[in-house]
Amino acid sequence: MADTEVMRLAEMPLHDPFVVVDGGTRTYHLYTSNDPSVSGVEGVGTMVYRSRDLRDWTRPTVVFLAAEQREPWAADGGWAPEVHEWGGRYYLFTTLHDESKPLPAPQPGRWGTPFRLPNHRRGTVTAVSDSPLGPFTLVDASRPTPPEHLMTLDGTLYVDPSGQPWMVYAHEWLQTVDGTMEAIRLAPDLTRTVGEPVFLFKGSDASWLGEQIPAGTPHQLPPYVTDGPQLHRTPDGALLMLWSTYEKNRAGEDGTLSGGYVQTYAVSNSGELQGPWEQRRPLVRDDSGHGMLFRTFEGELMMILHRPFENARGKLYEMQLHGDELRVLRQRTDLDGGG
C-alpha cells in the first residue's frame, strides 16, 4: 500500500462494515458506504479502507459509484456493501433504493398499523471487478438481484456444501411488517437468480425482543426489523447467521415502543440454510449492530460492527465458538479506540 496517511477506527466514518482478508497481500479490506468527507469523491457508492494490522488504516478509495453505471435501476442508498471473491473475480453486493418508485405496501390496519407504510424500490444489486479495489460494474443495471417487486436490503453471499451460491437478504418490515430473512439461489456466475425465494425466519421469532417491555403496555405488536445477515459455518457443521434488529424496551406515553439496535445471531443445527433456525441471545447491545465475522491472519475469530447507529464507527470484538454457541471474549479497544 503506497498510501501514507494513517487513520484509526475511532476517526473513520463507517456503517455496515464488511472486512475481506486478502492473504495474497496480507491486507484487510474494510468496505462501507462512500462518505465524501473522507474519500474526497462525491456520490452514492462504496469505498474501502485498508490495513495490515487492523489498527492503522489508509484513507479510503472509492471502488463503486452508482452515477457511473448506465441507467441504474436505482441510484440512492449504497448501503451495506460486501465484496466476495468468486471464480477468480470480485463481486460487490450493495443496496440501492429509489423513493420515487412505489412498491406494494401492507393495507392500513394490518398487524395493528393504523396507516399505510411507505414502500419504494429497494434491493441489493450485484457488481463485478477483477480487483478488490474496483472499479465495480453492475452485472445488470436494470434490476436488483432479489425479485424487484420485493422491498429488500443487505444481501450477502452464502455457498452451501454442494457449491450452490445463494443470496441471503432481509425482506423489509416496511413491506412485511414482521421482517423476514429470505434466500434465493444464484446462477454459477452470480449474474442472475434461479427459482423462487426461500423463507428462513421472521423477526418476531426472537422471543427475547419484548422482554423489557413494561407490563400492561398496550401495543406489544410489530414492526419487527431484520437487518444485516451474514453466514458462518462452525467446525461442528452448524450454520450461524449474524443479524440485527431493534430491541423494544421502552413505552412512550402514547403506547409506542422504542429500543436500541442490537447485534444478535441464530443457529441452524441441521447445517442447512433452510434451518430450522433457533434464535440466540444478543451478542452486543448499546445501539450496535450489522456485524460480520472474519479470521485474522493469526487465526483469531473477530467480529466487526458499527456503533452508534448515527455517526457510526467500527468496533472490533474477539470472539469464541463453543460448539454452536458464539461468545464475545472482549472488545479490542486497543484497535478500535473503545467507546
Automatic annotation (TrEMBL):
GO MF annotation list: hydrolase activity
The keyword Hydrolase is assigned to this record: yes
InterPro entries, alphabetized: GH43_arabinanases, Glyco_hydro_43, Glyco_hydro_beta-prop_sf
Pfam families hit by this protein: Glyco_hydro_43 (PF04616)
Signal peptide feature range: none
Membrane-spanning ranges: none
SUPFAM superfamilies: Arabinanase/levansucrase/invertase
Pathway annotation from the record: Glycan metabolism; L-arabinan degradation
Keyword annotations from UniProtKB, A to Z: Glycosidase, Hydrolase
PANTHER family: ARABINAN ENDO-1,5-ALPHA-L-ARABINOSIDASE (PTHR43301), ARABINAN ENDO-1,5-ALPHA-L-ARABINOSIDASE A-RELATED (PTHR43301:SF3)
Family the UniProt entry places it in: Belongs to the glycosyl hydrolase 43 family.
Protein name: Glycoside hydrolase family 43 protein
Organism field: Streptomyces gilvifuscus
